[in-house]
Design goal:
It contains ten helices and ten strands. It is an alpha/beta fold. Strands 1, 2, 3, 4, 5, 6, 7, 8, 9 and 10 form a ten-stranded mixed β-sheet that branches.
Length: 307
């Protein structure tokens, strides 16, 4: 295999051994030549047997593995990019199963342009963790109509299916490692590269992967709560994003109203008689938004009492 690959695929992992195998297997089926890409796995000290699994995993392409202290997703991805041998890097996750033309589609989009660009591929969100993935059990993450090659806003800079020149990433300082809570490192990177450095983000319709992770409604509520808890970090760096992040008077008022209802008490007390499946789509959206606001308000309360 080539010691100077054309593409480096970087993925971080933590406690995802079984799904990681599915992802690594998907790179064995790529249409892009196997001697022209490498896959770099950075594990954040998993205790599920990931290191032992990687010792014995046999890949038909160049595969390198690093185990580091668990300091969050940003640290793992930054480590992977630093170790990359290629000048083109694709970032993905250990639960994102790549379609056969995943790498090829990313590469082809970059070849269309003579200047540096970022490329966001098409990620499908699944309604069920089962293989093979059936078309009617998935929906695109980007739900509005977009076409191949179209420019996207900074808020679609998502590192589960993102490619960019390695040097662009390194010169930007990489992902902010102070984001150790849930998310926001992607948005921060997008703001800095797309809004700040004016590097365009283009959509690659055929760079497809499936997010092999389904959240229950309760897990989604918890995820939104954690997002609210950690949003202060990105807000401190980019205060102009306050309304975009949902920290506006409408959403705050919605939270105040809903938090006084019997439904909210049933949810927060995990009432076993509450049938989440019976909730309308609007109520589910409303509840998710309120959990985000709740997480933000709790974080603000803790911060103020530390002063």
């Amino acid at each position: 295999m080539s010691t100077n690959p054309d593409v480096s695929v970087v993925l971080g992992t933590f406690q995802l051994k079984d799904k990681l195998k599915l992802v690594l297997d998907s790179f064995a089926a790529q249409t892009f030549p196997k001697d022209k890409f490498e896959v770099i796995v950075v594990d954040s000290s998993s205790t599920d047997g990931t290191s032992e699994f990687m010792k014995h995993y046999s890949a038909s392409y160049s595969l390198r593995f690093f185990s580091i202290d668990n300091k969050g997703k940003s640290t793992a991805r930054n480590k992977g990019v630093v170790e990359a041998k290629s000048e083109l890097v694709i970032m993905t996750d250990a639960d994102m199963i790549a379609a056969p033309n995943f790498i090829e589609a990313h590469v082809e989009m970059h070849r269309r342009f003579s200047h540096p660009i970022l490329v966001q591929g098409k990620t499908w969100v699944l309604s069920e963790e089962s293989l093979p993935v059936e078309l009617f059990r998935r929906r695109p993450y980007i739900t509005h109509s977009v076409v191949d090659g179209q420019k996207l806003g900074f808020y679609y800079c998502l590192t589960g299916n993102l490619s960019l020149p390695r040097q662009v990433f390194i010169d930007s300082g990489g992902l902010d490692e102070t984001f150790t809570g849930y998310g926001w490192e992607d948005i921060d990177l997008g703001v800095r590269l797309i809004k700040g450095n004016k590097i365009p983000l283009h959509y690659a319709e055929f760079a497809v992967n499936d997010h092999f992770h389904v959240w229950s409604e309760a897990e989604e509520w918890n995820r939104r709560f954690k997002m609210g808890q950690s949003v202060s970090g990105v807000l401190a760096k980019h205060p102009s994003l306050k309304s975009f992040l949902g920290l506006n008077i409408f959403n705050r008022t919605l939270y105040r109203i809903v938090s006084m209802t019997a439904l909210w008490k049933d949810i927060t007390l995990l009432n076993p008689e509450l049938k989440r499946a019976d909730l309308s789509s609007f109520k589910k959206w409303m509840i998710r938004e309120c959990f985000f606001q709740w997480g933000y308000q709790e974080n603000q309360f803790i911060s103020e009492n530390k002063k």
